[in-house]
């Protein structure tokens, strides 16, 4: 994404007015900077039991400039969190053995040991609104519907990192 910048032009405006009453457009040069934002190498953990979905999400988030680690189960994700700190965790809701809610609960319990309470979590879901709002009530910071992940997930990650 680009940034809009305004730089004050030197000298007086061409209209001959004094600088106190000049037209803003004549006094300022607004340009659109189309260079992409430099992404910090923030570390994102993506958890999903579906290898195809996991691969797709990994590629999408890496293309946005983030460093991505993946886990095919909640247990594998918790093991990864013992070794490394992550800036954002993205977790599927429907997984065998431990679903997304149980994973978030386990993650929050580990706070004293691994400082995970402040790590933002996005829960991915293909289910209805009941699940989505339950995710927020149970400790997730955001939810994302899987069918909208291609247009929304990276924006959500960026938002959480900039908070």
Task: Explain this structure.
- The protein has 163 residues and is α/β, with parallel strands linked by helices.
- The chain has 2 domains: 3-33, no CATH class; 43-162, 3-Layer(aba) Sandwich (Rossmann fold), CATH 3.40.50.2300.
- Helix content is 39%, strand content 22%.
- The chain has helices at residues 24-27, 51-63, 74-83, 100-109, 111-114, 129-137, 149-162; strands at residues 3-8, 28-33, 43-47, 67-71, 88-92, 121-125, 142-145.
- The strands form 2 sheets. A 5-stranded parallel beta sheet has the order 4-3-5-6-7, sandwiched between helices.
- The longest helix is centred in the C-terminal third of the chain and has 14 residues, at 149-162.
- The two termini are 18 Å apart.
- Mean pLDDT is 78; it is low at 1-22 and 32-40.
Topology:
Blueprint: E1 3-8, H1 24-27, E2 28-33, E3 43-47, H2 51-63, E4 67-71, H3 74-83, E5 88-92, H4 100-109, H5 111-114, E6 121-125, H6 129-137, E7 142-145, H7 149-162
Parallel strand pairs: 3-4, 3-5, 5-6, 6-7
Antiparallel strand pairs: 1-2
| Biggest sheet features | 5 strands, parallel
Low-confidence stretches: 1-22, 32-40
Structural class: alpha/beta
Listing every helix as H and every strand as E from the N terminus to the C terminus, the arrangement reads: EHEEHEHEHHEHEH
Strand segment tally: 7
- Do you know the CATH topology of the largest domain? Rossmann fold
How much is the radius of gyration in Å? 22 Å
Give the strand order of the largest sheet, numbering strands 1, 2, ... along the chain.
4-3-5-6-7
Number of domains: 2
Measured as a percent range, the helix fraction is 25-40%
